[in-house]
# Entry
Amino acid sequence: MKRTYSISDLTEVAGSVLAHAQSKVLLFYGSMGVGKTTLIKEFAKQLGVEDTLQSPTFSLVNEYEWGDQKLYHFDFYRIDNLEEAMDIGFEEYISSNHWNLIEWPEKIVGLLPQNKTNIKLTKNQDGTRTIELNNEK
# Structure
């Protein structure tokens, strides 16, 4: 899936990600300020999360529960090595069969599962964004 969109299309784009993702592990790639967290907030809303999502930049992970489901939102921008991800129990999170939404996954390549959905965001000169979704098994 590849699509160019504006902020007014965010609800539709998040729904399309939900429809096309073949894994509950979603990896969000893109430069600072491209809209990764904004897309994740809309995605969580569509899943049914009622809490307001906050970026987990300093805590590394924020957890959200609704019903019997959970969503783990990771931001690995500030980590220096894989050990930091291991120290928060990343392997347990990733094997939980709950939603795992990961910003800056390139920082933890050695810990990522085979079954995942890669989401690459780029900012275009006209202010729109382009999203590319690729499922890996």
